[in-house]
Amino acid sequence: MNTRPKPILFHSPNTRSSAARTLIEELGADVELRILNMKASEQRGAAYLAINPMGKVPALLHDGVLVTEQVALFIYLADLFPAAGLAPALDDPQRGAYLRWLVFYGSCFEPAVVDRYQKHTAEPVAMCPYGDFDTMFKTLTDQLAAGPYLLGKRFSAADVLWGTALEWTTAFGLIPKTPVIADYIERVISRPAVQRVKAEDERLAAAHAADVEKAAG
């Protein structure tokens, strides 16, 4: 019998932690949620900074161990709840590709998108962690085009991460919404787990806004 305490996820609606919250729904995992009102700057309060000095969400506490950073949480949670089948096992031939696409998000995609949005001067390809934006983007879209998911026919935790991320990056015009990307987003965000989290985040966000307004008098 597993006597370890259940994980605690620190979450705030409509933030990066929404993807982690969605993964928990997909996993059917027994995880305690602790909600932070970022509109009230609760993530900058002493109580939360004692947990995560970066003052960011998501953050996960499990059995006294802190896990932060989106990709690390995805790897940790999907492995912690293997019955859901969202993470290839260590001896699964698809494990390498699965890890590749999870890490590609944080190490290549996000830095490239931020640099492009902020119009940073391009670094020499040899000095840039993602090479160049066009190569990074084609690498991603070629994989999505082979679909329907990043591991072919197999839906995984990597798709939860990428589907939610591509939805907001296209919504804000940070990357082009090509037909391949649009189709992939729709396959992911139409899933019941995604829709449940969206609805709950809307409720939480409205409640948080009302609390801030009430406190302001």
Notable traits:
217 residues; alpha+beta; Glutathione S-transferase Yfyf (Class Pi), Chain A, domain 2; four-stranded mixed β-sheet; 8 helices
Write the layout of secondary structure elements.
Blueprint: E1 8-11, H1 17-27, E2 32-35, H2 46-49, E3 59-62, E4 65-68, H3 70-80, H4 95-117, H5 133-146, H6 157-171, H7 179-189, H8 192-216
Parallel strand pairs: 1-2
Antiparallel strand pairs: 1-3, 3-4
Helix pairs in contact: 1-3, 1-6, 1-8, 3-4, 4-6, 6-7
In short:
With 217 residues, the chain is of the alpha+beta class. The protein has helices spanning 17-27, 46-49, 70-80, 95-117, 133-146, 157-171, 179-189, 192-216; strands at residues 8-11, 32-35, 59-62, 65-68.
Care to describe what's here?
The chain is α+β, with helices and mostly antiparallel strands and 217 residues long. The chain has a domain at 95-192: Glutathione S-transferase Yfyf (Class Pi), Chain A, domain 2 (Up-down Bundle). It has 8 helices and 4 strands, in the order βαβαββαααααα. A 4-stranded mixed sheet has the order 2-1-3-4, covered by helices on one side. A hairpin with a 2-residue loop joins β3 and β4 (65-68). α1 runs parallel beside α3 (70-80). The longest helix is centred in the C-terminal third of the chain and has 25 residues, at 192-216. The radius of gyration is 18 Å and the shape is globular.
N-to-C span:
51 Å
What would the average pLDDT be, to the nearest integer?
A: 94
Q: Could you name the ranges where pLDDT drops below 50 across 5 or more consecutive residues?
A: none
* Cα-based radius of gyration, to the nearest Å: 18 Å
Strand content: 5-15%
Shape: globular
What's the total number of strands?
4
Most strands sheet: 4 strands, mixed
Structural class: alpha+beta
CATH class of the domain at 95-192: Mainly Alpha
CATH topology of the domain at 95-192: Glutathione S-transferase Yfyf (Class Pi), Chain A, domain 2
Number of helices: 8
Helix content: 40-55%
Tell me the strand order in the biggest sheet: 2-1-3-4
Order of helices and strands: EHEHEEHHHHHH
